[in-house]
Amino acid sequence: MTEQPVTFASAGLKLSGVVHLPPGMRPSERRGTFLVLHGFGSNKTSSNTMAPTKMLGELGYVVLRFDMRGCGESEGEFGRVICLEQVEDTRNALTFLAQHPSVDPARIGVIGSSFGGAVAIYTGGVDARVAAVISNGGWGYGERKFRGQHASPQAWARFTTMLKEGREHRARTGKSLMVPRYDIVPIPPHLRGNLASNSVESFPAETAQSMFDFRADDVVGRIAPRPLLLLHAANDSVTPTEQSIELFKRAGQPAELHLISDGDHFMFGEGNRRVWGLLRGWLAQYFPAAVAAEKRAAATHA
To answer: Do 199 and 235 form a contact (C-beta atoms < 8 A)?
Structure first.
């Protein structure tokens, strides 16, 4: 694949990305395209970003992976991760990508893992320009997700106290209370090696509050009739599996949900052949990289 380092604007900030062009593209040809969204406080070099980028490129898609504001090499306060701001970044990435000469602007999908999966779903629900959505280990209801991640009464009390102290600290000082990553989203030690280098380790309490308030559940039904694929580890050690099950219940058709028994939260980085087989089959049916000219014209005027 040919790689093109790019930057684009979002809310007055410069975001860093890389466009990947598949081999064998003809002059003036426009392909189906994907935005690849990274996870919580991660960046565009994570395994959950690089692995799907590689696979999609091999299948003939144009791909853009990028750093959300405050992450990786993008501008913005490092570590300030706010759900709806990431939705805004994704929509601005879509606007940028639609102007690329190798991209079919009517056929841009979004794929994301974990936090990026939740943002992908929400973006698809509020922006009709998104042509397809794939979520790996995403979530739809922040409060319910956190209750699953902080399951004991003691853990839940610590978490909700942290949210309260964050609000009070901000009101009292005008500054953010910084919170360690694992106090927000616990990750078992054996999985922490999957985090990308330069991942955010400390976040403002407003990050946790924005996640608590985030409800992709409320908009997932608006994605239909565009296709939606939900993937989740059947025994996810980070994001409760019920999150994707509940999203599927609220989705319109066509939508598919696959629970993977031999994977965990960082499935895209694990090289699971069953996961890639599911993806290839779904893409071939619902969102191929290239379509005949007459089908493309019909989609454009639909």
So the answer is: no
User: Regarding the domain with residue range 2-143+214-296, which homologous superfamily does it belong to in the CATH classification?
Assistant: Alpha/Beta hydrolase fold, catalytic domain (3.40.50.1820)
Condensed to tens digits (0 to 9), the pLDDT of residues 202-234 reads 999 999 999 999 999 999 999 999 999 999 999
**pTM metric for this prediction:** 0.94
Nearest to 80 by CA among 200, 226, 214, 260: 200
**Phi-psi map region of 79: left, alpha, beta (phi>0 left; psi -120 to 50 alpha):** left
Separation of alpha carbons 239 and 233, rounded Å: 9
Residue 15 bridge partners (DSSP): 8
Tell me if 104 sits within 8 A of 28, measured CB to CB.
no
- How far from each other are the two terminal CA atoms of the chain, in whole angstroms? 32
Question: Residue 196, Cα to own-chain centre: how many angstroms?
Answer: 15
Return the H-helix or E-strand segment holding 130.
strand 130-136
The pLDDT tens digits of the residues spanning 127-143 come to: 999 999 999 999 999 99
